[in-house]
Write a structure and sequence with these properties.
Layout: H1 3-47, H2 58-67, H3 69-80
Length: about 80
């Protein structure tokens, strides 16, 4: 194996590592968003039996979307103190 081939292999592995790292953040954000929205609807469904609901608007959707489960927990606790 020549030196040039080893250099190309190292560069290729470095680029593959960089692409994987760059795609990890949007995938995580997408999963958090899906989990957050589903939990908001579940919270509102179960909360309807107890006269408890969280209004789904752009602000609550962003909080639940970016933070996921901790965001929904924050919204529930915030609603209790209002």
């Amino acid at each position: 194996m020549s030196i040039e081939m080893m250099i190309y292999a190292v560069i290729g592995l470095a680029l593959l590592y960089l692409v994987i790292k760059l795609l990890k953040w949007p995938i995580k954000l997408l999963i958090n968003g899906i989990v957050g929205v589903v939990l908001l609807y579940i919270t509102n469904y179960i909360g309807s039996y107890f006269n408890f609901y969280i209004t789904i608007n752009p602000i609550t959707a962003i909080i639940a979307g970016f933070l996921g489960i901790p965001g929904v927990i924050f919204l529930i606790i915030f609603k209790f103190f209002l």
